[in-house]
Design a protein that fits this description.
Layout (H helix, E strand, L loop, with lengths): L2 E6 L4 E8 L3 E9 L1 H4 L7 H23 L8 E7 L3 H18 L3 E5 H7 L11 E6 L4 E6 L6 E5 L5 H11 L6 H9 L24 H11 L14 H30 L3 E5 L6 H11 L3 E2 L3 H4 L3 H13 L2 E2 L13 H12 L8 E2 L2
Helix pairs in contact: 2-3, 4-11, 5-6, 5-7, 5-8, 6-8, 8-9
The structure holds 5'-O-[(R)-(carboxyoxy)(hydroxy)phosphoryl]adenosine and zinc ion (ZN).
Amino acid sequence: VKTILGIETSCDETSAAVVEEGERVRSVVTASQDDLHRRFGGVVPEIASRAHLQALIPAVEEALARGGVAREEIDAVAVSFRPGLAGSLLLGLTFAKAFAYARGLPLVGVDHLHAHVYAAALEHRVACPVVGLVVSGGHTALFYSEDLVEFELLGSTIDDAAGEAFDKVAAVLGLGYPGGPAIDRAAREGDPRRFSFPRTFRDSPELKFSFSGIKTAVRYHCQGHSSGKTPGRRMSRKETCDVAASFQEAVVDVLAAKLEQAVERTRPASVVIGGGVACNSRLRERIRGVFGGMVLIPAPRYCMDNAAMIAGLGCRLFEAGVSHDLTLDVDPRPVRAARIRAARRRRNDGRGTGTASRAG
Ligand code: KG4
Ligand code: ZN
């Protein structure tokens, strides 16, 4: 039995988990920092790093205790090392290295976005090949995978992430932080057809996203179509809910259309979604409507940042021979398609992938 300790600190959630065989979750403990960042209306990197420093060891202790797992039972440590906030990633990676070094265990670095795709496999049998849509506060991307070990980037956002748009629009509407759940709730009382907001790239054949235009369109709408720093005009509760619903509908339209394009192009056996925005009730409903039984959607606790998805994918990577030495560094930027292709070429040359060493 492979028992993996997973560590996740890429943004503002401190999470530790113990997962067996890549899919049996013994325990997952996630400490949210929402209360610390709320008054700033967004994640403050310095505050996030310090909060990880305080919360991580207690989270690990609690994950081991709740799962009834002794330290001796852990076979490897998996940790998200990209992408994310550099300082936040460093906390998790440094802890993972220390734990692995102290116990003489293998260290497995995991790509946080690949793990969001993998999350569906914690609860479902995911038939491969699979197409995954990752929609979170920091990223919006489409992936293709033939084995849930290696992932190919099909396309991503050229500016804001979908979750970022939810958070900023919620701030403009005065709905609070984090914005995604607040818009989801307000939209239930609103009319999604009342206002027509831009659906950037929906009808373009290219697999790319852009959410800065819709964010600006909503801001102009709320300011009575004036630009600049004029304070928002007073909107009725009814109009606020209608704007929330119309905004959400436009974002969901684009996400569903792009996922359909990716599926037409790659003909996968299953479709998954992941990331915090995958908690959105309208998105879940729409994606289920479009893809039916082909789509697998994780429970909200596995959509949001969590260490179970890191431990799960870490187990698969470890089984495939991937492990990292103690010089592994964090990489704040997401991997672009060109870098994946370059890594493949290098591996085909027999020179390895640069950071990952494949044993056996
Ligand atoms: O994956 P995640 O926990 O963190 C990142 O890796 O970014 O995603 C957080 C994002 C936030 O932008 C939050 O507003 C959004 O997910 N979110 C939602 C919902 N719940 C969380 N967006 C729309 N609808 C929701 N119900
Ligand atoms: Zn995430």
